[in-house]
Automatic annotation (TrEMBL):
<dbReference type="InterPro" id="IPR058670">
    <property type="entry name" value="PTPase_dom"/>
</dbReference>
<dbReference type="InterPro" id="IPR027417">
    <property type="entry name" value="P-loop_NTPase"/>
</dbReference>
<protein>
    <submittedName>
        <fullName>Hypothetical chloroplast RF45</fullName>
    </submittedName>
</protein>
<keyword id="KW-0150">Chloroplast</keyword>
<feature type="domain" description="AAA+ ATPase">
    <location>
        <begin position="122"/>
        <end position="261"/>
    </location>
</feature>
<dbReference type="Pfam" id="PF19568">
    <property type="entry name" value="Spore_III_AA"/>
</dbReference>
<dbReference type="InterPro" id="IPR045735">
    <property type="entry name" value="Spore_III_AA_AAA+_ATPase"/>
</dbReference>
<keyword id="KW-0067">ATP-binding</keyword>
<dbReference type="InterPro" id="IPR003593">
    <property type="entry name" value="AAA+_ATPase"/>
</dbReference>
<keyword id="KW-0934">Plastid</keyword>
<keyword id="KW-0547">Nucleotide-binding</keyword>
<dbReference type="Pfam" id="PF25516">
    <property type="entry name" value="PTPase"/>
</dbReference>
<dbReference type="GO" id="GO:0005524">
    <property type="term" value="F:ATP binding"/>
</dbReference>
Amino acid sequence: MNVDEDLDKLLETLPFFLKEYLTTHSSRDKIIEIVMDIGRRPEARFTTGPEYLSHKIISWQDLEYIIKRLSSFSNDNRAGIERTLHRISCIRNRQFLITGLTCRVGRAVFGSIGLIRDLLESGKSILILGKPGVGKTTIIREIARVLSDEMEKRVVIVDTSNEIAGDSDIPHPGIGRARRMQVAQTNLQHQVMIEAVENHMPEVIIIDEIGTELEALAARTIAEKGVQLVGTTHGNCLENVIKNPPLTDLIGGIQYVTLSDEEAKRRKTQKSILERKGYPAFQIAIEVNEQNYWTIHENVQDSVDLILRGNFSITQCRTIKDNEKIIINYKPLQLNPFFPTINQSSNNLFKINQNWSYFNNQRNLSVYSGNEKRFIIYSYSISYNLLREVVLKLNIPIMLTKDLTKANFIIGLKKQLSQNQKLQSIAKQNNIPIYGINRNCIYQITKLFQFLSS
């Protein structure tokens, strides 16, 4: 991967004592942002961690020196440097005077989307999720270049804060042949999105930081016009979008549905459930967990449905190594936030009461019959039919026993397990671990067995 960062142009705007220090810094290529607040020491944040840049505290004069060398701040308190991708954001006091600056280093990283090249060629709309600072803007900038230059598509970028193509009327070469539409005010982004479709005949529209209900609605309108969308939004995973009401239009919308008694019994759910309302605006979702580790939802429609129903599913994980070799693995879909009985942490996947759960590192939870690994379990207060259905689904060799002393472990409902003192006593004497789940349902039993067999 090649990196174009124009770091010297950013350093030119800094006071001399900061410029001199950073110019010769051994890790200058790893800098993410520079933070300056009045009355505090300046700080740089590298990929390896934060570091103070000087013992001198920042003064009003230091901030004024920088501000004079920037373009004017927009209504979203962001400014830039001509013909670069760097972004400077300000913090204001109650009198609207600037008391702090965050200088974010912008980089055009050529080759950064090798992980998802095949997804771009599919022509489907792609939603990129990730926490702030993980590199979403860098990704869509490279996507714009690849789609416009290498795939020769008509690409229009709706650049709200001039962060994708730089703070200049002439776009940064990092976006290739893609065209850029600037947005005068952030609250008008949704209007510019629609205008891009109506006036400029794009095949692809790229949008950064979709954050409001109007922008989500505009994205859906664009998708319905047959235009490929590539957009970003804040959130660690797809479930964050489901839980964010203004953004649910991106994944088809969410609505409450009341089932009949018979249907609720058949599904083994409550009568009031959440379901997807329509087709999602984006067919593919990418969770940027780390710079070189992404989780892929190749069918957003199915992923959303499975999350809402609490059904078992698999997501795709892609990693790129130092030698640029791509590794694709699969992992279970994260737990459903609308079934609130399971702890989300993988280390505490099933909440265990330490008063009645005992572990011995020397005891193996499985026994072997020939070359086959088997689990011998004692089930307490869990339906046999549910256990049988999960075993058939997962194809795990599991044996049920009625002899408690022969079990590798005990599973059951937490409430009933916690009330059975005799069972706890026998489990303690025989050093048998106990695992409790909150509900008698297939989803939680499936997750328990996956946890035990991992």
